[in-house]
Amino acid sequence: GGSLSKILSLVLLKGLIQLFTGKSLSILALKPNQGIEGVLQMHQNGHLKCIIDGPYPLKQYPEKLQYFGEGKHSGKVIIQVTKT
Fold first, then answer.
1. Which residue of 10, 42, 51, 68 shows the fewest CB atoms closer than 10 Å?
2. pTM for the full predicted model
3. Backbone phi, then psi, for 56, in 5-degree steps?
4. 8 A C-beta contact, residue 55 and residue 77
């Protein structure tokens, strides 16, 4: 995303950026919400299931971050912050 001027600047200057930084830059155009009708239909038919792994207390954050990084989670990992 970004403004048109930033996108055009990237297109025009990407050769120089690559020369000085060694980074290769490109633009990826996406179609927003492509296929959303199918997802909506599955939801309406009850074929989608929300999976949440947690909630876990904030004191378990370091170990749950590692748990997430190792790919052992199923669904979204939720860390719950409670007011004391």
1. 51
2. 0.40
3. -115, 150
4. no
1 pLDDT above the threshold of 70: no
The phi and psi torsions of 80 (rounded to 5 degrees) equal -100, 125
- Asked if 58 and 81 count as a contact pair (C-beta separation under 8 A), the reply is yes
Alpha carbons 47 and 79: distance in angstroms, whole number: 27
Complete DSSP assignment for 49-63: ---EEEEEEGGGHHH
d(CA 83, CA 10) in angstroms, rounded, equals 45
So what's the pLDDT on residue 66? 92
- What is d(CA 38, CA 73) in angstroms, rounded to the nearest whole number? 26
Task: Indicate if the alpha-carbon torsion angle 78, 76, 69, 27 is positive or negative.
Answer: negative
